[in-house]
Amino acid sequence: MNKKKISYKDEALSFLSRGEWKRALESFQKHLEQDPGDLRSRIKKAELLERLGNKKEAVEEYRQVAETYAKDGFLLQAISLNKIILRIDPSSKDIDERLTQLYMEKIRGSKPSQPLPHIPLLSDLKEEELRSLLGRVQFRTYPEGALLCREGEPGDSLVVIVRGEVSVYKQGPKGNEVWIQNLGEGESFGEFGFFLDRKRHATVKSIGESETLEITRNELQEIIKKYPRVNEVLEALFKKRVLDILLALSPLFAPLSVQEREEVLKRFHLHHFPADTFIFRRGEPPNSLYLIKSGEVEIFGENLQGKQVVLGRLRSGNLFGEIGVLLNTPRIGSARATQPSEILELYKKDFDELIQKFPNLQAIAKEISSKRLVRMKEIFSKDSVDQAKEPMV
Questions:
Q1: Where are the domains of the chain?
Q2: In terms of C-beta density within 10 A (0-12 exposed, 13-18 middle, 19 or more buried), how is residue 360 classed?
Q3: 84-143: per-residue pLDDT in tens?
Q4: Domain 258-380: which topology?
Q5: Residue 126: what are its φ and ψ, rounded to 5°?
């Protein structure tokens, strides 16, 4: 029996590789009579039905497989088939609602011992929010070796891998590509450009054939207008995926373990500052330190001649305001948003508690503050300084 099953399937794949679509379809049908649960073969059958012009039958086959995926909790696979159905038959608008309903039923009925895979953003949405999102995602297919995005080019979409695997590379010190990691089904990339500066921070290539779902920031902003709670989900995703990386790269927080950084993440609070708004002024008490999510902040002070000196214009990912917090002294410089900005704030009382909880943080903080104070004195003692490389307030 097993030999016959394998024979029908292998036969179908052989016909398919030679372009004999009708014979391949007949062999797939024989195989599926014996193994109707082989969903990948059912998808191949649907593809062949479409190629042979039987679009109505193809849509029905895709629909049944999509519903099976959704019932089993495999939302990404269900969504990808949904996009194929809509390409063949744009009038099939009800399928988004049906898939969402089946998936949410699966979530509500799932047992702790059988957890569903967590999908960035999608898994944390409510039913009506998810339904709205499904209508706005873009489904894309890439052949083996295809370039999905290149480091440095524009990009503000969040990409989730539906099927296949991709490799992530960063540019090395000599201009060479350095492999970082591989990502598989359910994992995502593009968070930095999506949340911060609208640029790709890595090059991504498809290892084999792959499928992705893509949602742009503009599309999500439209959803947020109708469902404001989606923004809370986005903020949670930002803290989990992006802010943790920023902290891991920060000289102050890098020595902490992953678990310790999670404790730091919980204490950051997001604020919105209009353009030309002071975040703090010289002489004020050091109530917080800050991390820029988006926008720009200008750091400035006065040199020995009383002349205003710009120390830096900082953008996404930069930490500032830590010197006063570390040394518990009044601000020796000012910080002002030069454009509408989103700033993450860590209160001094929370930072003090973190130092008590993680003693090694205090030694690191003292070393950093001492070096920056020395550099700051050097800058302020000069007659003219256009811009320093680091903020030091």
A1: 2-115, 138-225, 258-380
A2: exposed
A3: 888 888 877 666 676 677 666 665 655 544 444 566 677 677 777 877 777 788 888 899
A4: Jelly Rolls (2.60.120)
A5: -80, 170
